[in-house]
Design a protein that fits this description.
The chain has about 325 residues and is α/β, with parallel strands linked by helices. It folds into two domains: about 5-235, TIM Barrel (Alpha-Beta Barrel); about 255-315. Helices cover about 45% and strands about 15% of the residues. The protein contains 14 helices and eight strands. It has an eight-stranded parallel sheet. The structure holds flavin mononucleotide. Flavin mononucleotide (FMN) binds near residues 197 and 199. Flavin mononucleotide binds near residues 35, 36, 164 and 198.
């Protein structure tokens, strides 16, 4: 599985489910990945984690992201991911949320490069499919551990490292410091480095590649309500109107946008029933960004409960 040169949809908890991944794939994302899944949870309660691990053929290549702090558990979970047919395993070593770091997983591993390496090694030996690792730049205030962690996990056989160059302490504040991506690539010129963080419009993706030399670009928040961003990068043109970005000339036509949103809701309803329609409220809010009247539209979304209400709302607004 090749990561270099790819446009990758970032893992986003509660958002990048099978339906959203497929829509992004169809609109130019080359690779997608599930949201983070607890390795321990997968082993102990496979029935509960199963719904996060559903995917359709059209999504491939698709990876599953695991978090955990115990090498043996990571190995077993990675083997299970392969058995489920995924194309690669991504290990989360960047999640800043306390619930995850308190157990020693996610960004907590940034303080323990050797353990990070052992976890990657265990997953690589057991998975039989490529293993990638997603990191932040440090646990505390300073971006002080990404190079050491990358050295360990590359040494363990990781196929790629994704860097979101913020520290855990920063959460989502400030700016992603792309210079750290450039440093990582400079340090590991023969390895695949995936740049991530603050790509807001297609031009940013090109700029990230030219400024940092990274091999691939991963996009998270800018894809919300805007799965077209991936094809816009390919075309080198600005993305969809309604994406909250400026000066967009070329994107989907209103008809294309409406058709995709309807399909998104249909698919969510088919898979999840009315809870899927409630989940669509946040997507509708994102899809409506930047369109005149969107704040009034968002105000009405709490009333959207059934598929018919969803369809009516979409047909009226979009
Ligand atoms: C709502 C939300 C959920 C996220 N969930 C995950 C996750 O499950 N796994 C992960 O590695 N990163 C997760 N992230 C981080 C993103 O993958 C990405 O690294 C970050 O948003 C920076 O990229 P962006 O500026 O393109 O959004 C999440 C971010 C957000 C905003």
């Amino acid at each position: 599985m090749e990561f270099a040169g790819k446009r990758i949809l970032a893992p986003l908890a509660g958002i990048t489910d099978s339906t959203f991944r497929l829509l992004c794939r169809e609109n130019g994302a080359d690779v997608t990945v599930t949201e983070m899944i607890s390795a321990k949870g997968l082993l102990m309660h496979p029935e509960r984690t199963g719904r996060y691990l559903q995917y359709g053929k059209g999504e491939r290549p698709v990876g599953a992201q695991l978090f955990g702090a115990i090498p043996e558990e990571m190995a077993e979970a990675a083997a299970e991911i392969r058995r489920l047919g995924f194309d690669f395993v991504d290990i989360n070593m960047g999640c800043p949320v306390r619930k995850v770091t308190a157990g020693g997983s996610g960004a907590a591993l940034l303080s323990h490069p050797r353990l990070a390496g052992r976890i990657a090694q265990a997953a690589v030996s057991a998975a039989g499919i490529p293993v990638t690792v997603k990191i932040r730049s440090g646990f505390g205030k300073e971006p002080d551990s990404y190079l050491a962690v990358a050295a360990e996990v590359f040494g363990a056989g990781a196929a790629a490292v994704t860097l979101h160059p913020r520290t855990r302490g920063q959460m989502f504040s400030g700016k992603a410091d792309w210079e750290q991506i450039a440093r990582l690539k400079k340090e590991f010129p023969d390895r695949v480095v995936i740049g991530n963080g603050d790509v807001r419009q297609p031009e940013d993706a090109w700029r990230m590649v030219s400024e940092t030399g990274c091999d691939a670009v991963m996009i998270g928040r800018a894809a919300l309500g805007n799965p077209w961003i991936f094809s816009a990068i390919l075309k080198g043109v600005p993305a969809a109107a309604g994406a909250g970005t400026q000066g967009m000339a070329i994107g989907p036509s209103p008809e294309e946008r409406r058709a995709l949103i309807l399909r998104h809701g249909e698919e969510m309803h088919r898979r999840k029933g009315e809870p899927g329609i409630r989940e669509m409220r946040k997507h509708l809010a994102w899809y409506s960004r930047g369109i005149p009247g969107s704040s009034a539209f968002r105000g009405h979304l709490v009333r959207v409960k059934t598929f018919d209400e969803f369809r009516l709302a979409v047909e009226r607004f979009f």
